[in-house]
Every structure is written in C-alpha cells, then in structure tokens.
Amino acid sequence: ALRPRGCLVYSTCTLNSEENEEQVRWLLRKDRSAHSVDLAGLLKLPSAVSTVEGCLRFWPHACDTDGFFVSCFVKGTTTSGESQDPSVGVKSTSAQQRLLVTGVLMAEGVRLRPMGLTSAEDLRGMAKDNGCWPLPEGNLAESDQGDIWLLPCLGPHLQHLVKHTVAPGVCIARAKTPAGHTPTLQPSAELLLLTCGQPGSKANTDEELAALHVAAGGGEGARSIVLELCASRGDAGSVAETLQRWHVQRLEPDLVNYNIAMKAYAQKGDIEQCRQLLENAQRQSLQPNVISYTTLVAAYEQAGDVTGAEGAISEMAMSRVEPNSISSSSLVGAYVKLGDLIGAEQLLSNASAQQVQPQLYNYTKLVDAYAEQRDIVGAQRVFAKMERALLEPSLVSYTALLKAHTKAGDLLAARSTLESMRGRSLEPNIVTCTTLISAHARCNDLSGAEELLEQSQRWHLKPSLVTYTALLGGYADVRNAAAASQLFNEARKQRVTPDLMCYNKLLKAYVRAGAVAGAQGILMDMQSEKLNPDAVSYGRCAKEALVRAGKKK
Question: Which helix (H) or strand (E) holds 488?
Fold first, then answer.
C-alpha cells in the first residue's frame, strides 16, 4: 500500500536470521519495486552493525543495548525513463537535490525564505480559526507563492540526510487567491492531520480523518480506510466513486479492498454488483477467499435468494474454500428472509446431524423470526433445540423469546421468561425491558408497564423512543390523554426526540379521549417540528370529527 518512494521499516527485537535477513530477502525476491536502504551508510554507523543487505543488527555485547534488528525499504517508481538509486529510493535527477542556503532549506522549484512578520500574523490567525494552534515545533519558511512550510530542526549529525528527502518539510498552509480577492492562507491536509487531537480541531470524525489522509497523499492505505468507512455504513455510491478514482490513477485494488467494496453492496442485497466485483478480482488473478464468498452469500441473504445462497456455498466447495460459521449463518438467514422458517430449522438440524456445531446466532435469529410471525410454538421449539445443542442462550436469545410471548399476548409467560433469564445471571437491557413493557401495554396492564419503566430506570437503563412509544400506545388504547401527555413531556425532558409514530400514538390518545382541540394542537406541533402528518394522523382527527357530527344530529 506504499505510494512511490514511500518507506517501510521492518524491525524486530530478535537476532534470529529467519525472522530478519530471510524475511528481507523474501520481500526483495517477491516485489521488484522494493529496494533495501543502506541504513549504515545513510546514518554513518560503523560497519560492525551492518548486514550484507544494508540492514542494521545490534548485538548486546558490542553495542551495550538490547539485541534488535532494523531494515528499511523504499518503493521504486514505475514511470518509464526514471532511474532509481536503490540505496535511498530517490530519483537521481537534479530537480530533487536539496541545498542549505543561508540557514534556510531550499529545493529547486520551491524557493524558501524566512517567514516575514505579516505572514506570521496571517498564519497565527488561520491556525487559531481552524483549531490548529499551537503549531508543531519546527522552523517556518515561506515560498515565493506564499505557501508556508514547516522545516525540521536538524542537528549537525542529521544535516547530511537532507539531500535524500523528497520534500523540504511539511507544507502546512497554502496561499489561495479567489478571483478579485487578496490571497488568504488555508490549512493544508498535513497540518490538519498533525493537529487533529487539539481542542477546536475541525477533523474529528473517522471520515474526516480518512479524507485528510487521502488528500495528504496517503496512497492505497488511506484509500482503503475511506473504502472501509463507506462500506460499513452501506454507502455503495461512495464505494463506487472511490474505486473509480483508483482506476483513474491506474491503481489496482487488492483482494482485501474488493472484499470491503462487496460488503457495501451485500448490505443492500445487490447481487449483480457483488458478482461484478468478484469477477474483477479474478480478472486481476486474485483468488477469492472465504471472506469473498461469505460476503456474496450475505448478499443473497439480504435478497432472500436461497437458491443463490446455496449456489455460492457450492462455489466455495469447488474452489476448495471451507465455509465458515458466518457463511452458514447467512444461508440460514436467506431461508428466514424468504419466510421459509421450516427450511431454516431443517438446515440447523442437518448441521447437528453432520456433527457441525450450529452457532447460537443462528438459533436466536430463528427464534426472533418465529416471534415476528407470532408463532410461539415455533419459537419455543427452536429455543428448546438451542438448549439441547448445549448452547447457552444469550440475552438476545431470551429477548427474542420474550418478544414471541409479547406478540402472543401471554403476559404470564413473558414474566416467567424474564425470571428465567435473571436466574442465569443475565441482566435485562433496555430492549428487554421495552419488550416486556410492550406486553403489559398490549394487555392494558398499564400499572405493570409503569412499574417496569421505573424498574428499568433503577437499573440505570435509559428508556428509548421505542420504550416511550410502546407505553403511549397503551395509554391511547384506554383513552388516557392526560397520562399520555405527561409521558410525552417526560420523554422530551430526557432529550428523546419524538418521531411520527410517537406523535401518532399521542394523537390517538387525544382523539379517543374526545379532545379534538388538543389533537389539532398536536398536528400543529408536528408541522412545527417538520414532521409531516400522514394519513393515519389526519384520519384519526377526521374520524372523530365525523363521529361528533353524527352525535349532534
């Protein structure tokens, strides 16, 4: 992932040649763009610590230090007509020779002079505005174009290294001249990276830092980070743009990057794009691995395509790639997505018969799927199979079973499940409590729901929007507008932002209580919060108005 002329240091704390010199020789044989740097000559160290490859080996008895090994490699350029000095990895052209003139470092093509007072004031103001103050230590110099450079403070023993550098220092600010305006200083990507941890820094998120790495010339490594961030949030558009920029710059993604890109499309169930990326990797003579095929199976899972998922598993076997637990889970998930829960259950049974240990996650996913279908018998059956398989149910497993009892309206069984869970030292989280609160609300046991809400707060669990919405629905069912309004205001005090569903539950409470004026006020509040009331919102008010009009007649 190094950019041309980038450096790689490989160092160990051992004197074993298998981990040191043999690794160096392997890299030089494998990658012809790699050049070993003669560190002893570069640093003017005695030949006693130098190896044949130009690496450093420090012997404890000779150097009065712990034994360790250091090697350095430079990636050569691939542009035709450029010669390469394998000892330092810098093009042998006069344009790259560095000079020391009147105490200020200069490069041909980049004339540097000591920075003036006016530029210093401008720099200070720019740095403070962008959260980059104080600046990193070093000598400041100004180019003829008005750019500001930060130069390293080199002592006499390191001064001879200057001629080997590819830049005189770090350009920390660039002069920008908008049309019709005076020049202004703008922070460089390098400066923002150097000062990203300081208070007031404008680069705080992972996305911002990754973009700065790319802008600063971070090469393929930086682009891989950007790709991973885009894929993790399912941003397939940004993934495609990143890959396109690579192709424009004549860079070829490796298999890791292809796998990362596939992940973004798999989350959307875009099988065609996943297949295309897999084929692109194969055209580059990259052999897909277990992660490649597992991501493909996950794409079929999202699409609910069982046949395609099974075909991808078969492809793995033909390529002599052993499926892992994640690919097996995705196959089960494909059955669940399709709604074929019996098929998913049979798949788990077949795995057990073949002495392949199914994962707890598979059983839990199936219990939750049965719960969504209000099939309490199926949920209990799979939960029992989970225990017979000697798998310890997790908090998520119990919560899925709790949901099944809740949707079936079996409050007693839901309470019993909670006690069983706590008997295994599994403390409920807010999702568990919300599921049980919903069960009480569905059964119009609002005192029980309120008690659970208070209990969850005593357990230091913060109620979520779903928690408040579930209890609001219970108040609406019993036409208790006052309690619903009080709970709604409490949620806002806890900085929980209501959504459309939450407002509709509150609206339902007012409409069913006959408080039409209050309901109309809620509609106005929704519009002021930029939540557009839907057909459910207006339908409730219209229905109540018609009922009242009929009663008056």
Answer: helix 481-493
Token pair in block for residue 231: 């894929």
Query: In angstroms, rounded to a whole number, what is the distance separating the alpha carbons of residues 401 and 380?
Result: 7
Other CB atoms within 10 Å distance of the CB of residue 80: 5
Mean local confidence (pLDDT), 399-423 = 88
Can you give the pLDDT at residue 542?
59
CA distance 447 to 470: 14
The residues, any chain, with a CB within 8 Å of residue 47's CB and separated by 6 or more, are 40
pTM equals 0.58
d(CA 67, CA 438): 65
Question: Is pLDDT at 153 greater than 60 in this prediction?
Answer: yes
Beta strands 184-187; 112-114: pairing state:
unpaired
What contacts 8, CB < 8 A, 6 or more positions away? 2, 34, 72, 73, 74, 75
Q: β-pairing, 112-114 with 68-75?
A: unpaired
**Are 47 and 40 spatial neighbours (Cβ–Cβ below 8 Å)?**
yes
Stretch 56-62: mean pLDDT: 82
Rounded CA separation 442/540 (Å): 20
By the 8 A CB rule, do 126 and 187 touch?
yes
